[in-house]
Amino acid sequence: MTEFTSLTVTIDREVHMHEEILRRFNDQDPSHYDTVVRDEGDGTRKLKGGALRWDDDGCSVYRSRILLILGLPKDCIATDAHPAVARTSRALIESFTSGLADTAVRPEFAVVADPLEPGEPYDPAHTLIQPMAEYPSKTKRRTAANDLARSAFSLL
C-alpha cells in the first residue's frame, strides 16, 4: 500500500527587500538579450527591455525563496519559449532611477507579490514588477524599462 501525505504551504505575501527575484527570457532573441555588448566592469552580457514583457498588471517574475520552499529549482520556471533565467532583487528594482519619469514617485518600479492558483508547480511563486511612476511618453517608459533590465538583472 502506498501512502500519500498532503503538503500545505503558506505563502508569505510580503516580498522581502533583498529577496531574489527571477525572470525567464529567450537568450536567443536579440530583443531579450544582448549577444554582442558586454558589461565593461565584469564582462557579462545584459538583458534588454524586451525580456521584460509588460501586461496590464505588470511584468511577471518569480520569487526564488518560494520556489525553494516548494522544493523546486530556480530554473523550473524556464520554458521552451523562454529557456534562460535572470535574477535580481526587490532592492535593486525599487532603487532603480531612470531620470525619465514625470513624477517624483519612488520607487519607479515596485515588486508586488501575486501568487497564482497552482496550474504549474511554480505558480505560487509568481510575483509582479509594476511601474509606479508616470512617464511623458511610451518611448520614455520603454527606455526606463530597458534601463531597468540592463542595470538590475544578471544571468542565473
How would you portray this structure in words?
- The protein has helices at residues 64-69, 90-95, 138-152, and strands at 20-25, 33-38, 45-47, 59-63, 84-89, 109-113, 126-131, 154-155.
- By secondary structure, the protein is an alpha+beta fold.
- It has one domain (20-155).
- A hairpin with a 6-residue loop joins strand 2 and strand 3 (45-47).
- The radius of gyration is 17 Å and the shape is globular.
- It starts with 19 loop residues before the first strand and ends with a strand.
Let me know the number of strands: 8
The ordered string of helix (H) and strand (E) elements is EEEEHEHEEHE
Oligomer designation: single chain
Q: Tell me about the biggest sheet?
A: 6 strands, antiparallel
Biggest sheet strand line-up? 6-7-4-1-5-8
Shape: globular
Q: Radius of gyration over alpha carbons?
A: 17 Å
Short characterization:
Helix content is 17%, strand content 25%. With 156 residues, it is an alpha+beta fold. The chain has one domain.
Please describe the topology of this protein:
Layout: E1 20-25, E2 33-38, E3 45-47, E4 59-63, H1 64-69, E5 84-89, H2 90-95, E6 109-113, E7 126-131, H3 138-152, E8 154-155
Antiparallel strand pairs: 1-4, 1-5, 2-3, 4-7, 5-8, 6-7
Key words describing this protein structure:
globular; 3 helices; 156 residues; six-stranded antiparallel sheet; single chain; alpha+beta; two-stranded antiparallel sheet
